[in-house]
Every structure is written in C-alpha cells, then in structure tokens.
Amino acid sequence: MAAALLLAAGGAGAYPDGAPWGASDPDATESCASCHYDYEPVMDSAALSVEGLPEIATPGRRYRLALAFASDTAVTSGFQLTIRGAGKDNGMLVTRDEDVEVVGAAGRSTSPRPVGGELRWHIEWQAPDAEADCIEFLIAASAANDDQSPFGDTIHYKAVAIDVAAPVGD
Ligand code: HEC
Question: Helical H runs in 22-72?
Fold first, then answer.
C-alpha cells in the first residue's frame, strides 16, 4: 500500500478528481490522514467552519453554505464534506463552484485551490423532507504545501451536528 502510494504520488496525480469518497470521516480506513500522514491531524479544528448552517434546519429548505478554512500555513487546499445521519435521506448538495463536485449528500473539491488568506467553498444543502435527529456534517480540509504529493500537508477535521425539525407553530 505504501509503495503503491509512493508510486502514485510520483505520477501525474493519483487522485485527479479529488480524495476518495468518505475520506472526511477521521475513522474511515481511507481517511485523509491515512495518506497525508506526515503531521498529526488537527481534530475539531478551529480553522474550519460551516457558514450558514442553522442548529435546527427546516425540512426541505435550502441553505446556502460556505465551508470556510482559515489556515496560516496552507499554500493550497482541498476539502471534502460527508453528510450522514441515522436515516438514508441526508438531503442533497448543489454547487456552482467549478472546482467542487457533489454527489447526493457528499461534496469534494476536484483540484487544490491556492490559498490567499481565508478560503471558502460554496455549496447549497437542501435539507431532507423528513424530520431527523443528529445529521452530521463531517468536513476535512488540508493545509497543503503544493508539492503534488500527500507529504508535508496537515489535515484538519471538523464535525458539526444539527437536527431537522419543522418550525414550532407549523
Ligand atoms: C488514498 C490516499 C489519499 C487520501 C485518502 C487522500 N489523499 Fe490527498 N493526495 C493523495 C495523493 C497520492 C496526492 C498527490 C497526487 C495527487 O494530487 O493526486 C494527494 C494530493 C492532495 C492535495 C494536493 C497536495 C499538494 O501539496 O499539492 C490535496 C490538497 C489533497 N490531497 C487533499 C486531500 C484531502 C482534503 C483529503 C481528505 C478529504 C485527501 N487528500 C485524502 C492521496 C490521498
């Protein structure tokens, strides 16, 4: 595995379309830090935030979100978002950013973005139609050094949990 990765890293780009799906879960076998392992990952990173996400979302409503990453060290960065909950329906993502791809309730950057100050990836989330307790937004972003390899990068993780419930009075 390690040898395969080294080989891959020397090529034209092992993951030209972005990190493998599910990698923003720190407990996943193929999590970001399993390949980008030079530095200890930052858990519950203060540098990562989801702007525009309420604590309680309204079923079926669309929210314009921005995944913001404020890193002092990143030269380039990429992110991934995995939304999961107890039920099957965790809503749906939409994006207009050209370097972001969404599939159902997951999103990822498809190429590293240069960092000049704070970085924002824009994404819209349509909440599921049914009420739900504890929908988790698992986010990972890398403070990368732009050497086109998995080395010398620090992974930041953040998990945000919200509920989906009809507003009181409806
Ligand atoms: C299975 C291994 C693997 C996983 C998991 C993985 N990466 Fe990577 N990553 C690589 C390899 C190999 C490269 C270099 C080749 C390339 O760009 O595809 C790379 C390159 C990158 C780069 C460019 C780095 C630079 O300094 O130029 C970024 C940014 C990045 N990954 C972010 C992420 C993020 C964020 C995650 C988790 C959501 C992730 N990666 C998960 C293997 C992985």
Answer: 32-35
